[in-house]
């Protein structure tokens, strides 16, 4: 069993991953500045598992915080979630995105080097693929120039980490390219709790269903897809969390830098998501058709064969599970962790 430093571990994907790490018998140290999360998620992770983790309120851009974390705890590997993730905001305040996501990742790897820790799992995104690629997207396809600054930071960090692993063979790095994480832990005790108006489809749907928002705007119904609405590869956050454990195992026995897609391989349209949500949960979601959102592609879904064969990972949950679990979380926590 290993001692894992989880940056951004109080957030949506991080908290689910901490839970799976603890369940698997690992020790967990979370470093998070709580800029987009609350310590309540970690309290609940500990309640659910009956195990404790260490929490450091700190910033990945601060070498002091990082050095202290490595000096106090004998860390074997790092899972790096910390960063900013709102696409629209990244267009308005690009320097913050460059600072947290790029400079923060550089600070983190420098601190890892000082501490002699060379195993890293990085949260990347399907957004790094060139938009001209036709789905299913596989890891051999070219990356492109993401249309927004958030995606750009993911691409840059991927490239930096690839170059780092080539230059210094001590490094062992996994780049996990997430497709569309949704859902929540079965208990409904932890889940996605976006601040302000949600950018992503799933939290918007659940907030309409719970009465916090009037109606969902579906961005475009004239794409070349099954029903004209955008098609994405939704992946249950617990399946995604488990992919990190598989990647850790893989990286503890390998060197170099390698990318894996983490998606189910199934594409679902926005209307399919809305209709299935209503059917599975017996609750209505008011909606309107709105203009296309700038920067969106019609279709994006994964070829996940590399993760299945090399990491021994599979996605266990169906779309119905994802939608039931998202609703279970939102229903129990209508205003998120503030409830
Ligand atoms: P989140 O905002 O819930 O979690 C990120 C966490 O990082 C938060 O707890 C926040 O407080 C913390 N944080 C931010 N800046 C920090 C800093 N400088 N120092 C320390 N902590 C900091 O987001 P999430 O959805 O859990 O995403 C986790 C990672 O996965 C992010 O890197 C995100 O870009 C990536 N990702 C997310 C999605 C998605 O749709 N959710 C898709 C692809 C990739
Ligand atoms: N979407 C939508 N209304 C919303 C949010 C998203 O119709 O309020 C659509 C969006 O156009 C895309 C899909 O839902 O086709 C997934 O969008 P999301 O922002 O969740 O993820 P993305 O794939 O863009 O990262």
From TrEMBL:
One of the protein's GO biological processes: galactose metabolic process
NAD-dependent epimerase/dehydratase domain mapped to chain residues: 4-263
SUPFAM superfamilies, alphabetized: NAD(P)-binding Rossmann-fold domains
Cofactor(s) recorded in Swiss-Prot or TrEMBL: NAD(+)
Metabolic or biological pathway, per its Swiss-Prot or TrEMBL entry: Carbohydrate metabolism; galactose metabolism
Pfam families registered for this protein in UniProt: Epimerase
EC number: 5.1.3.2
Domain of life from the UniProt record: Bacteria
Entry-linked PANTHER family: UDP-GLUCOSE 4-EPIMERASE
Assembly mode: Homodimer.
Protein name stated in the entry: UDP-glucose 4-epimerase
